[in-house]
Amino acid sequence: GTQFLLHSQENLYWLVFASKPITLSFDTITKHTITSSDGVYTGVLRFALVPPTLSHYPDASSLSLSSGVKQLIYHSNVYPTGGEVSWDFFNTHKNNNTSDTDDSSMRMNNVGTIKFKYNVMLMTTTSTSDTTATNNNYLAEKNNLLMLSLPHHALPSDMMLKTFDLEYNCIKGKMKPVVGAEWSYNETLTLVDFDDEEAKQALSLQPSNNNTQHFNPTIIREILKQVQEDLTRVLPTLDENVYGFGKQVARLAQLVHIARRMNEVSSSLSSSNDLGYVVDQGADILHSFLTAFLTNKERDKLVYDANLGGMITLDGLKNTEADFGNGRYNDHHFHYGYILYACAIMGDINATFVSEYGHFVDPLLFDVAHSSYSHSNSEPLDGAFFPLARYKSWFDGHSFASGLFPFGNGKSQESSSESVNCYYGAYLWSIIRSKSDGFGNKEENKKLVDFARLLLATEIRGAKTYWHMHPPDTSDAKLENDPAIYSSRLAQNYMVGNLGMMDVTCSTWFGHEPLYVHMINFIPITAITSELFDRTYIEGEYNYLSLRYQEVQMAWRGYVICDEAMVDPNSAWAKASNIYSPELDSALSKSQVLYWISTRRGFNLPNSSGTSDETPSTVANGGSALCYQNKKCGQQGLTGECCPAANGVVLGCCDILSSDSDKSSTANSSSCIANEKCAAAGLEGDCCPAPGGIHLGCCDPTPSSVRQTEVSANKTESNSSSCSQVENCALLGLIGECCPTPDGVYLGCCDEQR
Length: 754
What we know:
This protein is of the alpha+beta class and 754 residues long. Helices cover 34% and strands 11% of the residues. It is built from 23 helices and 18 strands. The strands form seven sheets. A three-stranded antiparallel sheet has the order 1-2-5, with helices on one face. Strands 6-7-11 form a three-stranded antiparallel sheet. Helix 8 runs parallel beside helix 10 (416-434).
C-alpha cells in the first residue's frame, strides 16, 4: 500500500505515506521494515505525527473522523525540497515625513514584505523533469503544500486551514496549518532615527498638537553638567576586548549625542550660554577612539576570515574561548552593533569621518547585516564576500547567537535587546553612509537602509513574541501577544533568558537571578528601546522587578531606573540621584539615564536640580556629598548622600564640619540675584535656600554649620534618644536608639545633643 497508520509503544500515532506501493513488516533480527516489488525501495516516504492531544479520538479507527487527519491525507502528495527568501518595500503614505537624518531624495518606505517561496515535488512524480511548467498536474497541485507556521508569522487568513482539529505545539508555541507554496507577510518599518518620537516632542524637535512638554534651562544644565563629568570619567580603553570596547564607545557616542541635543534645545530657548564646546570636546574624544579602533591601533586587532567571510578578532582566532567566542562567530551582532551605533553618531556629526573611515566600518556592517539587495539566492552587487544576514533565522523570525559552537539544544540566543541594537546600529550607519559619496548609487543605498530596517523590524517582533511574556492573569485583548506562547508557570517570570531551538529558559549564561534575565534583555538604552518594549508590558514587568529593587547592584541599577521611566518617569528621576556613573554597566552613564527619563512621556520637570552625581565632586565647599567619601559617615555604614543629604541637611558625620567650624556662620542672602551663579543663570526669587528648603547648586558657598543651624531652628526640640525622634536619623531610616546608642555613642545624624 501507499498509506499506513503506525502505533508506537509510546502510544503515538504516525501517518506514513509512500510514493509507490510497499509492504511494511518488522523483522526483529534484521530490523528491516520496508520491502517493495523491486526489492530495494527508492521512492519517497513521508511521516506525519498525529498529536497526542487528540484525546476525543480514543482509538485508531476513530481517527478517520478527525478533520486534521483528513487534511494530512489530502495534502500528502506535495512536499518541499528547498526554499528561498525575498523581500520588497513600499510606502503606504504619499506624504510621509522623513527622519531628520534623511535628505529629500531618500523618502522612506514604511512597510517591508517578507516572502517565502518553497520548491516542491509531488509524491506521484517519477522524475525531476516532470516538475516543469508544462506539467499540468504539477501546476495544479504545487499550491496544495501543507506546512505549519509559527505564532509570529502574520499570514493572511485565507492561507490558514479553517477545518483542522489537530494541535501542533513546538518550543515557540502553537503552530498553525498553512496551505500554499508561497507565503508573504508584512513588517512595519521604523521611522525612529537617533531619537524616538517621545524624545523629539520633549525636545521640541518635532511639532505636536498636544505637546506640552519642554525642557527648561535647569534640566539642560543638570544634564550638561553630568555629561561634562562623564566625559572625564567613563571613557573607553583600547585594551578592552571587542565587546567591552563596543559598549564603552557606544556610551561615549551617546554622551556626544546628548550634548548635541541639549545644545540645540538651549539655542532654541535663546539661552546666552553656547554649549557647543561640550559637543566639540566629546566629538573629538569619540573620533580619536573610533579611528584608533578602525585602524587597528587597539590591542586585540580585527582580521578578515577569508574562509568563512567575516571579521574576527585576533585573540578569538587564536583561542576559541577568547572575546566571548568571537573567533568562532559567537555574538558578533552583539559586539559590532555597539560600534556601528557609535560610528553612525560620529558620521552624523562629521561627514569627513564617513569619507575617510567609512570603508573600515562597512566590513562590520556586512559581517552582521549583509544584503543581496532583494533575494536570498542573488549575488551581492558590491562583490563583498559575506553571508546574507549571518545571524538571522528568517523562518524563526529572530537571530541566533551561537556561531559555530555546537549545543545539544541547537543554536540559541540570550540578549534579544542587544540583537535589536545590532540591527538598529546597522540601520543608522546605512543611513549615514548613503549620504556620502563613494558608497554606491542612491537606489542601492536606499535598499540597504530598508534591508537593515527589515532586519530590525523582524528582530523586534521576534523579541516581543518569544522573549516578552505575559502571565495569564495579566493578559487581555489589548496585548499584542495575547495568545499564550509559554506555560503559565514560565510566563510568570515575564522575560525569557535564553531561547534555544529546542528549549527555553529563564536563566542566563552568567547567573539565574531574575534581574540578570530581565536586564540582559533590556540593554542598551537607545531610541529604539521605546519600540522594543510596549508600555503595557513594562507596567507588569516593572512591578515584578520593583519587588527586588533594593537587591539591585549599582551596575544594573541604571537600567532598572530606565525601565521604570517608561511608566513612571518622575519616580525614576528621584531614584536617579542615587546612581554613580563609574559604577554603572559599561554601556551606560548617568547622563544617559537622566536624558532618557527627561524625554519620557509624562515627565514633570522639577523646579530645581537634585540629581548631581554621587561622586566625589562636588558640593560647593569642595567636599563630597557621598556618605562613603566622608570617613565618619562611612564608618557608620551610611550610604547614599550625607553631606548634604538629598533634603539639603548636612549630617554630623561629614568631614566638612571640622573645616567649616572656624568659618563665619553668616549665611548669604537667600535671593537668587544675591548669588552670582544663580543670577547668571537668570533665576529669580529665592534660591539659597529655595522655598522648599533646598539649596540650589548655583548657590554661593555656605558654611555647613549655618545650614545645620537653619535646619535645627525649624525642628521641634526633643531629648529622646530614639532614632525616630531625631529628624536626621529618621530620614536615614534608622530605628532603635541613636542619640545615644545603647553603648553611649552619638551617631553622626544626632542633633546638638552631644
